[in-house]
Structures are given as structure tokens and as C-alpha cells.
């Protein structure tokens, strides 16, 4: 395996007395695609949110590119600009145009000139197949378009790793595939990705490693051909049968 | 504005011209020389009312912002500072606070070895500003907190620090929700500035009081006074509505 882009060692997290993450161990190699699935409340989103420190873990170690995440705000900011994130609810900035959404981070956090940032933004808008929407407001776009803008916004930071937190769950069915297509292309270009999703077709196509979580634990992990055909645990078998039924 | 004023004036005029002897509009009839002198005397308080209101509103907007920020802190101690200020200040009725500032505060200053006199103008301005700042602080806090958490999370994931997040993502969105209620607070200040009359400030209400004493025509004079405030407030309301329309169209645009 190539050197690890993300490494979680014995990570634990509590909300008050509720133990949301229990001894999570996970290694994501550079260029690797990991898909996390599991029932709601299983802690899968929390894992992703801990990786970019939107939430703090209480014990255990998280390393990004070999650098350990600490409470130091400077290291947190440095890590965050290496780790892109795509949210379920897109979270585009409604008061800015699409282009401004894409250039805000590169200009303010990366110190690019406006011209460089706009060139980069147009390049990535092209890559997510919406080159013509740069001057619109996010609210004028369809859900699928908004999510692709959100992906482009993350890409504009040229992150080492891209995290997806249920990126298609808030979309109308007919818009899911346009987002998944973009994600498949990214995967094929070698982006390191951690994706929380129930889109098992996508998972089969791109995942190097499948992870099933339940009640804050990683119950099962393995290569997709193995994972889908012969899961070891009863809980995972039951979950897969429920979501693959139709 | 015309739609409200014209029927009201007509109604009062009709009442005044009827056979009943209870109205005596001559005291403020601008076509007679004494009437015109009286009207000019009443209107001459307008400048002071506007000055007090504008300066108090400006100070309240600034103090409110300072008071609001601790409320957004993750530290409980800071949030407590905000809570104590807001709860304390907004529980004090305006009139007692005015007396305390005007008669009491100079004594406090004196005991600290400072000789800072407080005239009626600044007494009124300080009282109105502090009293109103508790409300403006709440308006800021509510406006900022109404912006969904996902916005600041998204800002963080594109590398912005907390100050940049506030400046480029949260405040530009919150300002649209903050400005209209803030402008409404201005109306409140204009009306409450009438209290300045009791510490001798020569503003609209004080002028009316003084004229009543010499002319003994309270009904007509106070009616005119109410119209003076009505006109002021209607002008501000029109401004608020203009502002809301502009903000609204920005959000859609």
C-alpha cells in the first residue's frame, strides 16, 4: 500500500455520555477510495467530520499525511485546507455567485490573485460539467448542479483528500447520477476519497475498501467484491439485504 | 403617508369646526400671527429630537455590537457577560434610568474625582443609547445565529479562519436580517426621546408642555405634538420599507 493519506488509530468520541465512535482504526492510502456505509446514527458522518476537525475526537490519534491533528488552531487550519469536504446539504454561500463561491477559499486562505483563482474556478467548473453557470447565484441552480458546484469549490483548494458526507442524499432521484458521474471521474483520476453513501452501485464501481459501521464501531471492512458477496457479520448482511433489495 | 395624514387631519378639522366649543385651533392656526408664532415654537423642538435620536441610535448600534459578540463565544463566561448586560439593562424602565444618569451619574463621577457634568442633551443620549443597546445586541445575536451552521462549516473547509468566516460568509448574510429590525429600533428611540423633556431638554415634547402652560390649550397642542411624531415616524418607516425591499431583492438576485 502507498503511504497513508489518512490514519485513524483507536479514535474514540463521546457526545456527553453517548459513545459515538468506539476504537475506530482506519487507514486510507494515497489515491485510495474508501466507502463508508451503515444505518443512520452509526457514526459514519462523525468519522468524516472528525477527519477534518469539524468535530473533536476525545482520544486516539488522527494523522493527515503523517501530521497529527491537535487542538492547535493553526494546525487545524493547515489540515483543513488539505482536506476538502462535500456536504449533504451542499452548504454553498447563497450571497455569492457560483464563481465567488469557488474563489473565496483560494483567494483568502491560499493567497491566490483574483485572476488566478478565477482561472482555476473556471477550470473546475468545466470539470464538473457546468461551465456556463459561473455568474449565477446558487439558488438559481438545480440540486444536482449545486452539489457539483460544491464539489468544484472543494477542488479549487486542490486538496490532498476529498471527503463526501452523503453527497446524494438530499437530491431528487433524477439528479443523483449527474453527481455520481462526476465523483466516478474524480476517482478515476486518482483522487483520494472517503465517501459516506448508500449508493452501492457507485461503491462497487470505485471503492478500494468498503467499511460497514454500526453503533459507533467498524463492524466489517474489505474489498468490495468480498464485501458484497460474502460479508462476515450478520449485521452487515442484514443491512446490505435491506438496502440492496430494490 | 398622505393616505394616513389626510383623513386624520380632515377628521380633526371637522371636529374642530363643529358647533361644539371644545376645540380652539386658533392657538396653532398658522394664518394668524400668534398662531404662527406658536407653531414655530412647537416645531423648533424638532432639531433637538432628531439630534438626540440620531446620536443615541448610532451609539446604540455600536454598543450593541460590542455586547453581542461575547454571546457568540464558545466560552460560558463570555456568554454570561452578555446575558447579564442584556437582562439587566432591558429590565430598567427608561424614566428611572434617565433620572439615574442625569442626577446620579455626575455624583458617581465626582466621587471618583472627575468633574464631568451631564447636561440634559447628553443625559438623554446616554440613557437612550444604553437602554436600546440591550435590544440591538439581541438583534445582532439573533441575526448571526440564524445563519445555518453549515455555512460556517463550509467556510472552514475552504480554509477560512474564524474572523474571515465571520467577515465574508456570516455577516454578509446576517446583515439582511439585522438591518430591518435595527431600523425599527430607531423608531423606538425617536418616541422614547420624549422622556428627555422631563430633565429639561428643549425637544418636541418639552416645547409642547411649555406652550400648554402659557396658552392653556392642551388638546390642540398635544394633538399637534402627536402629529409631529407621526410625521417623523412615517418618514422613518418609509425608509425602513425601502431598506427591506432593497435587502429582499438582493437575496433573490
UniProtKB/TrEMBL annotation, chain A:
The protein's superkingdom reads Bacteria
Keyword Transcription in record: no
Q: Which SUPFAM superfamilies match?
A: P-loop containing nucleoside triphosphate hydrolases
Which UniProt keyword terms apply here?
A: ATP-binding, Nucleotide-binding, Transport
Q: Which InterPro entries match?
A: AAA+_ATPase, ABC_ATPase_HisP-typ, ABC_transporter-like_ATP-bd, ABC_transporter-like_CS, MetN_ABC_transporter-like, P-loop_NTPase
Describe the location of the ABC transporter domain by residue ranges.
Answer: 6-240
The molecular function GO annotations come to: ATP binding
Query: Which PANTHER family did the record assign?
Result: AMINO ACID IMPORT ATP-BINDING PROTEIN, PHOSPHONATES IMPORT ATP-BINDING PROTEIN PHNC
Family listed: Belongs to the ABC transporter superfamily.
Name under which the protein is recorded = Amino acid ABC transporter ATP-binding protein
User: Organism classification, top ranks?
Assistant: Bacteria, Pseudomonadati, Pseudomonadota, Alphaproteobacteria, Rhodobacterales
From TrEMBL, chain B:
Membrane topology qualifier? Multi-pass membrane protein
Q: Which UniProt keywords apply?
A: Amino-acid transport, Cell membrane, Membrane, Signal, Transmembrane, Transmembrane helix, Transport
Q: Does the keyword Lipid biosynthesis apply?
A: no
Q: Give the subcellular location.
A: Cell inner membrane; Cell membrane
Q: Which residues cross the membrane?
A: 48-72, 84-109, 221-243
Q: Which InterPro entries match?
A: AA_ABC_transptr_permease_3TM (IPR010065), ArtM/GltK/GlnP/TcyL/YhdX-like (IPR043429), MetI-like (IPR000515), MetI-like_sf (IPR035906)
Q: Which residues form the ABC transmembrane type-1 domain?
A: 46-237
Which PROSITE patterns does the UniProt record give? ABC_TM1 (PS50928), PROKAR_LIPOPROTEIN (PS51257)
Per the UniProt entry, the signal peptide is 1-20
Describe the function of this protein.
Answer: Part of the binding-protein-dependent transport system for glutamine; probably responsible for the translocation of the substrate across the membrane.
Q: Which PANTHER family match?
A: GLUTAMINE TRANSPORT SYSTEM PERMEASE PROTEIN GLNP (PTHR30614:SF20), MEMBRANE COMPONENT OF AMINO ACID ABC TRANSPORTER (PTHR30614)
* Family listed: Belongs to the binding-protein-dependent transport system permease family. HisMQ subfamily.
**Protein name, as recorded:** Amino acid ABC transporter permease
- The species this protein belongs to is Ruegeria haliotis
